[in-house]
Amino acid sequence: MAGKDPGLIVRNTNPVELETPVALLREHRYTPKNIMYIRNNQGVPPGMQLTTEPPRAEEWTVEVVGLVDKPLTLRLSELKGLPATELEMVLQCSGNGRSFFSRYARASGAQWERGSLANVRWKGVKLSAVLEGAGVKPEALFLTAEGADQPANPQAPDIERSVPLRDVLASALLAYEMNGEPLPTVHGGPLRLIVPGYYGINNIKWVNRLRLEAAASTNNTMIPRYRVPLAPVPVGSAFTFTLDNSRPNWRQNVKAVILSPAEGQSVSGIIEVRGVAWNDGSAPITGVEVSTNQGRSWQSASLEKPSSPYGWYPWRVRVMVATGDTEVWARATDALGRSQPVDGAILWNPNGYEWNAVDKVKIKVG
Ligand code: MSS
Fold first, then answer.
1. Which of 1, 41, 208, 220 gets mutated to test ligand 1 (max ligand atoms within 8 A of its CB)?
2. CA atoms in the 13 A half-sphere facing the CB of 181
3. Ligand 1 within 6 A of CB of 4
4. In this structure, is the dihedral angle defined by the CA atoms of residues 351, 39, 163 and 310, taken in order, positive or negative?
5. Is the CB–ligand 1 distance for residue 250 below 6 Å?
6. Could you write out the DSSP letters of every residue in 30-81?
7. Are 12 and 110 in contact (CB under 8 A)?
8. Domain 9-248 has what CATH class?
9. Of ligand 1's atoms, which has the minimum distance to the CA of residue 206?
């Protein structure tokens, strides 16, 4: 694809889904656009190119409608005239890690490993500043975003996504830049809703309409897709999603991933284990621990802080590894005491969302 590193793993061609291998991800504090993963449910909007170049779209507008005193249509140029905010944030697909559910039973969807994951800097205008002009009514409890992309089959439901307004109002952005450049077309340029701390699906690309409503949408992007059961379900079983027995993929689970060594790598003696950790930004990550003996003992890694609560924490630790086939494990904990389960079976769900079990990498020690 135009502008993307040929080393990306193709998970799907139409719509495009590309995964970043960990070997590329670990090289950068901020993920550059040429290696950033792509998850499209539909194509790019009509008239746009599948490229990392920004679109020519100075005429772009976004509507603010629904439970507001004054519906608005804002031009991109007007948004760029408002005070801007810049923010580092992890963008992760809610299906990241889905392939690991196969240790128990395969979950349906693209078989992502660790790399539907990026850490980038967004620049844009605060949602709160945009909504101020519209006057949001107190009954408006949800924000539903629509993008200009369309389903391949016109009969199929279009992508749209709701988030709880009060929870996101202080942090959400309408972004027009990524990593200091105009937003690439394939990542939602010229304008994207950014909901820091939330899973990828909530960050609607090519955003052209914001609806303020009393209830969340019941579109197929909200139910049955992009949801998890409220209570654990038996591994491999079917599940009928209702509004009461499940919840949307909103705030990200606390998670550490190992970026080095890579799965299957041959190493010797003492190794440096490196990775990144993050959560939903509501509390700092307080520790990452690594085990090389199946969790009998754990060693603390040193952490680097991101520039915003929503960025990732790079971590590293030197550990001894016994000769033979062995596993390196890693888990993060945050200030609210939230951590990661050793056994991912309790996370199992038919669509394979929100995987955050202890990360386990098999290596060969010679
Ligand atoms: N947006 C729109 N408009 N469409 C689509 O499809 N997807 C999702 C988000 N947004 C979409 C949107 C998803 S799902 C994800 S992850 C993200 O996006 C991705 O991003 P990038 O930029 O990387 O491609 Mo899963 O949870």
1. 41
2. 15
3. no
4. positive
5. no
6. S--TTT--EE-SS-SPTT--SBSSPP--TT-EEEEEESBSS-EEEEHHHHHH
7. yes
8. alpha beta
9. 3
Residue 289 has pLDDT above 90, yes or no: yes
Most ligand 1 atoms within 8 A of CB, residue of 60, 62, 201 to mutate: 201
Backbone torsion region of residue 74, taken as left when φ is above 0, otherwise alpha when ψ lies between -120 and 50, otherwise beta: beta
Q: Judge if the beta carbon of residue 39 lies within 6 A of ligand 1.
A: yes
> What residues does CATH 2.60.40.650 cover in the chain?
255-365
Is there an atom of ligand 1 within 6 Å of 193 CB?
Answer: no
Q: With CA atoms as reference, report the closest residue to 249 among 146, 95, 62.
A: 95
- pLDDT tens, residue by residue, 195-217: 999 999 999 999 999 999 999 99
User: Which residue stretches of the chain are H helix?
Assistant: 22-25, 76-81, 127-134, 165-168
CATH code of the domain occupying 255-365: 2.60.40.650
Whole-complex ipTM:
1.00
Mean pLDDT of 214-232: 98
- What tokens were used for 297? 């003992």
Nearest by Cα to 177 from 296, 262, 87, 268? 87
Q: Is 352 in the pocket of ligand 1 (CB under 6 A)?
A: no
By the 8 A CB rule, do 40 and 21 touch?
no
CATH 3.90.420.10 occupies which residues in the chain? Answer: 9-248
Other CB atoms within 10 A of residue 93 CB: 25
Q: Which residues of 173-183 are buried (b: 16+ CB within 10 A; e: fewer)?
A: bbbbbbbeeeb
> How many angstroms separate the alpha carbon of residue 260 from the centre of ligand 1?
27
Distance 298 CA to ligand 1 centre (A): 36
Average pLDDT over residues 300-307: 98
pLDDT digits (tens, 9 = 90+) for 1-20: 899 999 999 999 999 999 99
Residues with Cβ within 8 Å of residue 46, at least 6 apart in sequence: 148, 150
Contact 66, 139 (CB under 8 A): no
Pocket test for ligand 1, best of 17, 93, 114 (most atoms within 8 A of CB): 93
